[in-house]
Amino acid sequence: MRKDDCVEMFKRIPGEMHQQVNLMLRNGFVVSVETVARFEPHYLVCRGREGGTTDEGRAFFVPYDEICYVRLERVVRLGDLKRMYGETGHLDAEDRLSAPSESAPVPSDVQTPAPTPAPTDPASIAKQNLLHRIRAARANVAGTTGRLGGGGGK
Hints:
Blueprint: H1 3-12, E1 21-25, E2 30-39, E3 43-50, E4 58-63, E5 67-72, H2 78-84, H3 93-98, H4 122-142
Antiparallel strand pairs: 1-2, 1-5, 2-3, 3-4
């Protein structure tokens, strides 16, 4: 890979995703990028960790020609990829399912149910807290709240 290719790729990847970038090297090693320090003429300078280790905050000087490919360590929707390249207006299946439907208006004679009151007993509160944490973890893994908590960098 050339320097221009790496610089262009990092420009396209939104800044909040840089900590989810893995550099896959020709020798099979993985460098999980925390932050890019410099793009030098022949190598990339970054801080991160080696894949499969917990040694964070290490410095890496990676020659561009040793980088096989760049991987985002999270689920990426097709619409997100297209937006990285300036294409807008694309909705993939996940976007259509999560978007509110405007084509099916609610009739005015249908009453919406009253909101249920917050639970007051400790077991119900604990259940609600657990459900909230599970939903937050799923959203985090899906990449909707930013950084990945596990193998994709710090």
